[in-house]
Amino acid sequence: KTLGPETREGGNGAPLVRGRRMEVEGLAEGAVVDGQGSRDAPVRPVKRQKQKASNAMGDEEDDGCLSGCPESDVGVSVPIAVVPTAEWTGVIDQVKSAIVAIRVTGVRPFEDSPAGVWQGTGFVVSLEDPKRALILTNRHIISTGPIRAFATFDEHEELPVFPVYRDPIHDFGLLQFDATKLRFTPPRQIPLAPENLRVGSEVLVIGNDNAEKIQILPATIARVDRNSPSYCDSNYQDENTFYAGAGSNTSGGSSGSPVIDRTGSCIAVNAGGATEAASAYYFPLDRVVYVLDWLRANPDKPPLPPRGTLLTKFLFQPFDTLRKLGFTEEQEQRVLREHSAASPPSAGADGAAVADGATAGAGGGSGGGGGGTGAAVGGEAPQGKRPKGMLVVDSFLPGSRAEELLRPGDVLLEIDGQACLIFAALEGHLDASVGSEVPLRISRAGKEMEVSLWIEDLYSLVPHDFTECAGGVFHQVSYHTCKRYHLPVQDRGVFVVESGFGFGLELPYHAIVAAVQGQKVGRLEDFQAALSGVADGETFEVSWFNPTTNERRTKRSSVRMERSLWPLCTWRFSPERPNVWRREAATVLPLATPPTPATSSSALPKEAWAEENGGAGTSTGAAEKGVAEGAGDVASAAEEPLGYPPSRDQTIGRVQPMLCTVTTRVAHEYATDFIQSEDELNSTLIRRFGVGLVVDAARGLVITDRYSVPQPLAQVELTFAQIVTTDAQVLFIHPQHNLVVLRYDVSAVHPLPVQSVDFPVVPTDDDDGDAEGSRGRDELGIGEVLSYVSLHGDHRLSAKQTTVGSIYLKAWAFCEPPAYRERNLEICNLNDTLQGLGGLLVEPGASGRTCAWFAQFPAGKKHYLAGIPMPVLVVLLRPLGFLGGTSPPTSLHLARVPALDCEFEELSLAKARRYHGMSLEQAAGCSKDGRRSVLLLSRVTTGGAFDGRLAEGDVVLRVAGKAVTRPQEVERLMDKHSRSGEEVCWRVLRSKKEVEAQVLPSVRSTDGTSRLLVFLGIVMRGTPRAVAERGGPVRPHTRPGEGLYFWHIFPGSPADTFGLTAPGWLVQVDEDDTPSIDGLLEIIHSGRLKGREWLRCCTMDADGRQTVKALQSDAIFWPTVELARGAASDDGPKPRWSRTEHSDG
Q1: Is 189 exposed, middle or buried (0-12, 13-18, 19+ CB in 10 A)?
Q2: What pLDDT digit, counting tens, does each position of 158-190 carry?
Q3: With contact defined as beta carbons under 8 Å apart, do 319 and 388 qualify?
Q4: How buried is 1115 (Cβ within 10 angstroms: 0-12 exposed, 13-18 middle, 19+ buried)?
Q5: Whole-angstrom Cα distance, residue 479 to residue 460?
Q6: What is the pTM of this model?
Q7: Ordered DSSP codes for 445-480
Q8: How far is 142 from 122, CA to CA, in rounded Å?
Q9: Residue 853's beta-bridge partner residues?
């Protein structure tokens, strides 16, 4: 869609976004969207980057502009006129203590407002009840969803403010605060004088411009008859009101600023501005005065003064335009005569536009809304002012009575028997007659007629309740969305504010849900009722359409319910003083049981397979052969209904029963163990694809890489033969190497002839007593011609001949923040472009050896495809109980593998002799199998078993008396001696001298986060091992598995509100240290934090630098939540993640 140069909402509210632009689905890429005051978090259906909250008001860290964007994108810079200080000093002193800078936190995304932090301006308009004093600001600042807000007064005093009223249609709202808590700032209010809004008036716009605490900008009112501006980035659009215009180059944060005249009164509210000009738009005060008067007269009622609508948008058009629409000269003269007769000219009439009367009739209010609304109902233009135009029908909503009776271009003559020339008169009639019919007299192409329309209650059309499901946020489609996309308001469906983890892959932002499981969804209650009947883990159908596209066809998507981490609940709005939301939890249903596939009489249970074929820990024994025989061979299986696709390529036919596609989904907020790519940061959720290699078909065990399955907290699915998809359980994540073991339900893929991969026979130290045992024909050779069979994202297989290019020990770069990286592993590359997600390198034909497994290796924000030679892979799998290993398969999730607390790199013998003092005899002892390289210690893990025993730069000669040249040889020897717990002797070259070092073997269990804690919106876990592997001094709280390390802060949380930045460590809350999750929970349960409004949170960054932030707890929207993974087993059910809320005391 083309963005015109019209306006920016809050216009003047440039987002606090560093170095990027906000992009909205359906808008042209690169279009600058100045929206919603001064925001830190942009509207993000396409881009889901988390933004740091701005600092306290007055800080100079942010400039409120889009860094790196051309100046013309944000607004044309013009010189600011110098205001005579002598004339305005008294006025500024009079009003400045009533003007406040407002920092708003949207605790949940709602309609157009994302969760996050933004800024704006407000001013005090009522002090009649000091404990319930009122601040006026823009609607787009306080939004229509749940917020937390603070106001900073002139003397730098900060008080919490609470929303009381949000107008359903116009851009204003009211906040409440306790003025008795002001200690230094004298309580003052600014009188309202809407009748002073005239062309030529000199004014000051005083507010939080450009995210500064206070700025003073001069302007001159240029026009007062402007139709409401059209905001280019928002569903919300004001209507049926005039706006004033002036040349004031206001910018981010000035939304809600008072427009002050020379008397010290407010005559309008700053609301928006042009994106390509120095034009500002001011909202008049007639409806503000009406609302304040009503609230004053009804102090004990909910703050909902009557507001009505005809579901029709009117525009003010001059008489020349009306003549083009068929309005006759006779009708024009009659309107002028009737107006002249009803309003005799007064002295000093200057022929100003009728819009000068848009605020006349609101009365000369002062002190928070004086005056009345009688003149507004009258409908005449101001006395002495000749009308310059009339109200014309611009649009109406489909399905409404207005659509039946009105036409665009109809001229409004009368409403309820009275002339109606201005918007104030129209709204006065509508607000006085909500829920009833009103007669209208219109002119259509010169022909006059009467129609009757029903006045709808605007509050019923603007949603406040919302539902949270599977990480998404949903509410009923609003009146403003219906206007923007021309949708009926009857049974208008449910709006997708944020699709989240469960809906993210299927429903885009701004989609509208029409039905769930065949049940029509017209209201939010229908949506909640339909979801309440869906069990956790169950798949259900959602019918939806995207109103942002021209194609409005209904689509159907299958969505999986996720309740374990994101409980289904609905938040109910209560229009109290102040407004509140209350959570209603949905009924908890049992976990959905997957359907049991039909089995044939020849099928054996997995226990019988294992028993009959000599145990499940074998590799190429009868276990997997039995599976193949029970279902037929590959050729015959292709003819079965669930067989593998037939292939003329014998290599593909042989390999495809060993492979499966891995699909993983991870939520952004719980991406704990890896770094997201740029595309993943911009997506709704993280989805990755990879290749699984079947290592034990009898027990349903598959290995994949740590890029495809980066952490335990993930939803993993396996797809076999392009026809069967089943869930998988993460059993083991290798702590050092790119290896993950998954388990699937064998019965779910029956009768597919799934086969285990054919591993080569690699001698062990127990077999030959020598790590230099021959690898025979299974050794991969450079230049060897083989077939590479790869699997693609669409589950297709491909094969091609290729040659082995290189086999080497790769050094992987470190990433920031620290995350898993491969080390100490030999990989192979091919002399060809690698395609697909990975696969197997094999000898071509119906039989032959398997040479290498190709997998994806994570490397920070990128990933690479490389091969692991099969002899190397065998060494990695043996400690897990495969291929003759020692650990029983039933304890795979508890298995422990050898860990090297160091990092090797290859060093050629030539360099070792020239620079490290290696003798010819030592070189000959290290030369094995034609290798001409040795291992050099390039890094020693801080605090590890090698720290202080070995040094960086050591050249390894022998380990446990055996010459070693490969990292896996070292791992194998250390694993052998770890069983006895004895120290192992290493002989190394250090500073050209041969020395011995006694090193104690170390072993580790599965890697990955198994427990999380969300505290004040900070997502924390124990310190990842990657921090220690990076090196450097060991500090308190930074040892692997200890401390509270955080990498993500929820937008809209207390931590986001007060500017906490990730990553880092939470080291102290008030006076209590926080050494671990249990330590922090003990503090919470003890009640020491109960009743405290502010918590002093001390954090530490990677350099050891400590800072303190005072955070305000929010137990309603941000309770302390613990996520923990249940116990895993090889044969048991899939472990579930549990969610527990913790309360103080």
Answers
A1: buried
A2: 999 999 999 999 999 999 999 999 999 999 999
A3: yes
A4: exposed
A5: 9
A6: 0.84
A7: TTEEEEEEEE-EEGGGGS---EEEETTEEEEEPPHH
A8: 10
A9: 840, 868
